[in-house]
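Risk register update: the risk of archive-format incompatibility is retired. Evidence:
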Amino acid sequence: MPSGGAILILAALPPDILTWADALRRAHYTPERNRLPAHVTLFHGLPPSAEGEVHARLKSIAATTPPVEAKIAGVMDLGGGTALKVESIGMVAIHAELAEQLHGIVQQQDLRPLQLHITLQNKVPEREARKLQAQLAGQGIDRSFRFTGLSTHRWDGDLWQFERSWPFRR
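Archived output:
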């Protein structure tokens, strides 16, 4: 788990996608491990000392960016889990811009090529994960949407607590 106060940056899902994906997450994610509603993570565990800089950069990006086009593009196999694969050229560009601006405080895992996704299930037997993947693959889950903004959450030692959000320019 992250250290106390660590900052998480998420891309905000529109209400319809959030409701749909969160229902899937609640149905398939181990309840005691499900500490956050359905989400798309851009950065994990940034240091609390960077809060002011992180907030200033997110505010600036959101103020000049219209809602970002995206689509659910199938199912992603996480080995012992399942996710909805998300494609978004615009969000990948925002991630790259932030990674450059926050150089030196970004964790190694966030410097790898970004694979946007919404985790529905994690740390389960592979057989269970494959069963859900097959079920979802037959449901026509692909859909287009627009990310609505950016947000931060802070680790309080037990849960990720919502901190702030910045809607994209309308």
